[in-house]
Design a protein that fits this description.
Layout: H1 3-29, H2 47-78, H3 97-129, H4 132-137, E1 142-149, E2 152-157, E3 170-173, E4 175-179, E5 184-190, E6 195-199, E7 204-208, E8 214-218, E9 224-230, E10 243-248, H5 250-265
Parallel strand pairs: 1-5, 4-10
Antiparallel strand pairs: 1-2, 2-3, 5-8, 6-7, 6-9, 9-10
Helix pairs in contact: 1-2, 2-3
The structure holds copper (II) ion.
Copper (II) ion binds near residues 195, 234, 238 and 241.
């Protein structure tokens, strides 16, 4: 290949790369969740921190991915046998400054991105998403136990006495209601296989594993109705494992909780041990 056609090829590659990158940025900036495009609508207090993190990662890694794809395409198009290039095997050379330079830049970008992501994700977890200490210290925090099974979510609130497995518990099926002004701490387990309790609009997800109790926090903000999904393929009816998360104002939540607690207390049967699937809250103050 002549150096002129090589230059033309490189300009073409760079042009296509730049165009793809710009269109990608535009697509991310104009997400329309209701149209099924982009991330689900963020209805939580800190969800935007997750979204920013995802977009940062995509921004760094997409150009590398595109360059690599175009590099392979160029090799296939410009160096095939029809153009007189004979396939041969060699071990490469550390003396090729262009190849070494490209590798060094790629390693540096990915390495820097990994180190940055490591510190940032740990910081986000400690400060918000796994900060159970602050959430448990907040008097408004709502505590919920979720017991997953094939193929539904059993949900239990402690009721006015604050204790689980007592007659004033609120128990629902696939129906989680929370106020919009406080963190919600969920403890969850499963009775059969591994499920994953997923609240896409809260940017929260945690596995429900038989034999152990996992914990998660989410911070609802916008009043509305949102999906609860199972993010772990858990059997033939996995697709049916859908629940409804309803975010209410504090007043509406209190009204619902009071009424629901009174209603379910009539149904309490001390001998029905299967219905008493709740457990003692695992969080203990230091
Ligand atoms: Cu499931």
């Amino acid at each position: 290949m002549t150096s002129r056609s090589w230059n033309r090829g490189m300009v073409l590659l760079l042009g296509v790369t730049a165009t793809a990158w710009s269109w990608g940025a535009v697509a991310l900036a104009t997400v329309q969740p209701e149209a099924g495009v982009g991330l689900p609508r963020d209805a939580s207090v800190y969800g935007h921190l997750i979204d920013d993190f995802i977009i940062e990662d995509i921004t760094v890694e997409t150009p590398l991915f595109i360059v690599m794809c175009l590099w392979l395409l160029a090799a296939a198009l410009f160096y095939n046998s029809k153009r007189g290039h004979k396939a041969m095997y060699d071990h490469g050379s550390w003396k090729n400054p262009v190849a070494v330079g490209i590798c060094a830049v790629a390693v540096f970008i990915l390495g820097a991105d990994d180190v940055y992501s490591w510190f940032k994700s740990n910081n986000l977890l400690d400060t918000y998403f796994w900060n159970f200490k602050d959430a448990e210290a907040n008097s408004k925090t709502v505590r919920v136990e979720v017991n997953a099974h094939q193929w539904a979510w059993n949900i239990r609130y402690p009721g006015p006495d604050g204790k689980f497995n007592t007659p004033d518990d609120i128990v629902t099926l696939n129906d989680l209601r929370v106020p919009n002004d406080a963190p919600v701490v969920v403890e969850l387990t499963s009775v059969d296989v591994i499920h994953s309790f997923w609240l896409p609009n809260m940017r929260a997800k945690e596995d429900a594993v038989p034999g152990m109790v996992n914990r998660m926090i989410f911070y609802p903000k916008e009043v509305g109705e949102y999906d609860i999904g199972c993010a772990q393929h858990c059997g033939v009816n996995h697709y049916k494992m859908k629940g409804l998360l309803t975010v209410l104002s504090r007043n509406d939540y209190e009204m619902w909780a009071n009424e629901a607690s009174q209603n379910t207390s009539h149904l309490w049967d001390p001998d029905d041990t299967i219905a008493h699937w709740g457990w003692d809250w695992t969080w203990k103050k230091d």
